[in-house]
Amino acid sequence: MQLIRHLPSPFKDARKSALTIGNFDGLHRGHLALIERAVAAGPEQVPSLMCFEPLPATFFQPDQPIRRVMKLRDRFAVCRARGIQRFFQLHFNQKFAAQSPEEFIDEVVLAGAQAGHVIVGEDFRFGRRAAGNVDDLLRFGRQKNFDVSVVETVAGADGVRYSSTALRRALANNDFKLAEQILGRPYRISGRVLRGQQLGRRLGFPTINLRVPEPPVLSGVFAVTVKGEKLPRQNGIANLGKRPSVAGRDWLLEVHLLDFNGDLYGQHLGVDFIAKRRDEAHFERLDDMVVVMREDLRWAKQMFTPASERKAGTLAD
């Protein structure tokens, strides 16, 4: 898959793009329906996806950034696995913000992405002040000789609309079952294991550390499962936050594995979120933090113990 960050850029072949456009944060089932339509246009056209960083809403209100669901690497990997061959990751800036709907079509979609077919959701908006809608897109398609497909909103049997807004709401409410329904898979953050300050190891809770999308849609302490190419699925407990008790500044996902003791530095791992224990807390003394961490660990062990085997008060620390 070709990653394209700037327009114009040379393409690996001369075929036009079957281009789906959107934010694609999370790549939920609604997004996947757009990708499937783009892939179905092959082999005559190249299945392609266009998204923007920062998200336009964050660009216009930087003091109120949209909380992010997915890292670029994860988005890239899912798109490649689903058949996307051209991935346009464009920097949203004042030039984009100032383009009229027709300028966006002429300069970005046609001249830049070489689109022969554009696939969007029914709520798609584009151009300065989001002035363009799907009716405008259909009109431009007729005028400028490119195909347009408008894909209806995807919803579950219970009527839940599969959207990024619904996904962020489910995750913010710690409803991981609903999030999995919207995504079609468990909510996951993945990344390469970083070398940290080793504080967890000194306190008796060694962790693997991963970068997260910023600002993340989640924070707090969670029961998780972890898996990698060389690591069978492991149960764990994770803290996602800024680590105020140790003067942390950056967002970080720290995972303590319940039944593993080994070196995972540099490995690429995926962390699936199962349930939330509590919000991240600030402790004046590390001893107080360790007491709570032991309680968190006990809770996590209970979470992963089959109900038939649970006996209140018998799980060892």
What features would you describe in this structure?
By secondary structure, the protein is α/β, with parallel strands linked by helices. It has two domains: about 1-150, HUPs (Rossmann fold, 3-Layer(aba) Sandwich), CATH 3.40.50; about 185-305, Riboflavin kinase-like (Elongation Factor Tu (Ef-tu), domain 3, Beta Barrel), CATH 2.40.30. The chain is built from ten helices and twelve strands. It has helices at about 30-40, 55-60, 70-80, 95-100, 100-110, 135-145, 165-170, 175-185, 200, 285-305; strands at about 1-5, 15-20, 45-55, 85-90, 115-120, 145-150, 190, 210, 220-230, 230-240, 250-255, 270-280. A six-stranded parallel β-sheet has the order 1-4-3-2-5-6, with helices on both faces. Strands 7-12-9-10-11-8 form a six-stranded antiparallel β-sheet, covered by helices on one side. The relative contact order is 0.11.
Report the CATH superfamily of the largest domain.
Answer: HUPs
The overall number of domains is 2
Mean pLDDT: 91
Tally of contiguous helical segments? 10
Order of helices and strands: EEHEHHEHHEHEHHEHEEEEEH
Rg over CA atoms: 22 Å
Indicate the CATH topology of the largest domain: Rossmann fold
Portion in beta strands: 15-25%
Structural class: alpha/beta
Largest sheet: 6 strands, parallel
Number of strands: 12
Specify the CATH architecture of the largest domain: 3-Layer(aba) Sandwich
CATH class of the largest domain: Alpha Beta
Shape: elongated
Distance between the termini: 47 Å
